[in-house]
Amino acid sequence: MTKVKICGIRREEEAEWAVEAGADAVGFVFADSKRRIDVETAAKISALLPAHVLKIGVFVNESKENLTEIYKTVNLDYVQLHGDESVTFCQGLDLPFIKAISIKEKEDINGSLHYPGEMILLDSGKGPHRGGNGTTFNWDYAEALTHPHHLILAGGLNPENVREAIKKVRPYMVDVSSGVEIAGKKDRLKIESFISEVKSV
Predict the structure, then answer these.
(1) Domain tally for the chain?
(2) Catalytic residues
């Protein structure tokens, strides 16, 4: 069964909604974003989460020192790297990580194959930010992909399209942020609807 990550969590009640609805992971954004959370607040929310829910921090071009410090302070399970981090940088990181790859063209998929790590995240390359733009990429690019990693699919997913996305890409996990929001804030019913759709595929 496909796993679900609810990303861009900023408040305790949002984390509670995600957990109660059956989320497998939550994401805290520490990069420049309208969903950015401070380390202290993230640590408080993290401490409330059950052990089986993965805690993933989202970063863009962060130093190894800061990654390590925030990883420990918030008690993260993974750091998600959304910037220009090289294969060499990732190889030298003593932390569990997920490399995010922006997909604009089909060839962009090939770049994801070279990264080490257990999981890779495919996100849309369209929009002003490194992620969380609410735009999809062409899922056909990933449909025939034979990948050595667990694949996380992100980019423009919502309760209406996630079923089709899963059937095409067959990812290990789907990652949603703006697709479960109303007016820029997480919505409980949308979170429940999204997770229900995923778990029923």
Answers:
(1) 1
(2) 7, 123
